[in-house]
Design goal:
alpha+beta, Nuclear Transport Factor 2, Chain: A, 5 strands, NTF2-like_dom_sf
Amino acid sequence: MLLSTAFFTIVTFTLLEFVAAKSGVRVPTPVPCVVETATFEQQKALNDKFNEQFYVTRDIVGAYSHVAADYINHKPDITDGQLVSFNFVYPLLDASNSNSSDITMEILRTAFEPPYAWVHWRADGFLERPTAIFDIYRWNGTCIVEHWDAIEEVPENPVSSHPVF
């Protein structure tokens, strides 16, 4: 039986606090992005920086500095809010966590057409099989304010001859 993501998020956050308290290491907390107006070029540069931090260097604290506090998340098993999402993602993906070292992430395609940006990426070690993921973000000025995703584990024997990557 799979645990719900909400339960996992609460347990993970509590474990992060516990380990931090025992080791003296501070649990990182991203500073929420404050929405300011931005030109296309500024938004594009911020989006590129977010993609680099999140998907390439896996600096999740840095990436979440581009996310507004009242971030809307369309993921059905977690609630809204920058900190809620961060507490779910950080232990799974941040490069500083030994738990995330078995996960590899590769950006395959991106697009940016304000206010939307999307990333098609491959994750290995996230689920049992290679996984295709689409993330769609909505920007408001300088901040990501909304997110959708679609996650598909590649079957061992796909019926379609078309690759997902």
